[in-house]
Amino acid sequence: MGPTAGCSDGESINTAIGCIPVGNTNAFIGFILRWAIGVGGGIAFLLILYAGFMIMTSSGNPDRLKAGQELMTSAIAGIIMLIFSVFVLRVIGVDILKLPGFGD
């Protein structure tokens, strides 16, 4: 079995995270961006959980409560920015510029 075993196009490398398209630059950048958005969302989710834990365990300490609230606000703002960045890029790339390869 070679490095392209399991990938259908022959220009991809089969890894544990899926087939990474190395033959096409646009497909490779799209793959990296998809993973980066997923990792960013996962980190924001973990920060929301941690901020909730900080708020619940503050036991009346106003400094810890304020730090938890600020972290929660920042994490939610980060998720909103991720969602809107995907939406704006899709509107600009697919609907306005009609770039090939971006319409799913």
Order of helical and strand elements: EEHH
Structural class by sheet pairing and helices? mainly alpha
Total beta strand runs: 2
Helix content: 55-70%
Low-confidence stretches: none
The strands making up the biggest β-sheet line up spatially as 1-2
Q: How far from one another are the termini?
A: 31 Å
Main sheet record: 2 strands, antiparallel
Q: Give the percentage of residues in beta strands.
A: 5-15%
Coarse shape: elongated
Report what the structure shows.
The chain has helices spanning about 25-55, 60-95, and strands spanning about 10-15, 20. It is mainly alpha-helical and about 100 residues long. It has a domain at about 25-95. The protein has a two-stranded antiparallel sheet with strand order 1-2. A hairpin with a 2-residue loop joins strand 1 (about 10-15) and strand 2. The longest helix is centred in the last third of the chain and has 35 residues, at about 60-95. The chain is elongated.
